[in-house]
Amino acid sequence: MVRKDILIIALLVVFVDQCTKLLVRSILGTSHQLTIIKNIFYISFIENTGAAFGTFQGQNVILTIISIVIIGYILWYYQKIPNNLVVRLSGGFILGGALGNLIDRILLGKVTDFLQLTFWPTFNIADSAILVGVIGALYYYYVIEHKERFKRTEKTSNNKQSYKRGTKNG
Prior knowledge:
By secondary structure, this protein is of the alpha+beta class. 65% of the residues lie in helices and 14% in strands. The protein has one domain (5-161). The chain has a four-stranded antiparallel sheet.
C-alpha cells in the first residue's frame, strides 16, 4: 500500500504557504508593514530573488533547478523513507516547503517573504517548513537512528557473547 502521509503534509504546507503569500501580496502590498510585536515581529511584503539570508540574489534559474532536484530526490526516495513519524513529517515539511517556494519562482520569478523578525532575515511559511523538516530529519538521523543502531550493535554483541558461552558449555 502506498503511504500518502508525506504527500498530504506537503500539500497542506503548500496550501498554507500559497494562501498566506497571496494574502500578503493582495492586502498588505509593498507599502505597508503590520506590527505584530513592536520592535520584534512584523508582517512585511518582501520579494526575494535569492535564497535564505539573502544569498544567491538574482539566481532564480539555479535555485529553481536546485528545488526541482530536491523535490525529485524526495519523490524518488519516497518509498524508502523509514516508517517513523519524525522522519515522515520532516520529509513532508521539506517537500511542501520546496514546492511552495518553487511555485513562486516559476510563476513570479521571485519568492514572497513576509515574516520579519528584527534579529532574523525575512522568511515565509515554506522556509519555516523546510527549516522544521531539516531539524526533524537531523534529529531522526543523529538521535533516533543513532540509538537504534546502538541497540542493534549491543544486541549483536550480546548474541555473540551468548553464542561463545553456549559453545564453551556445549
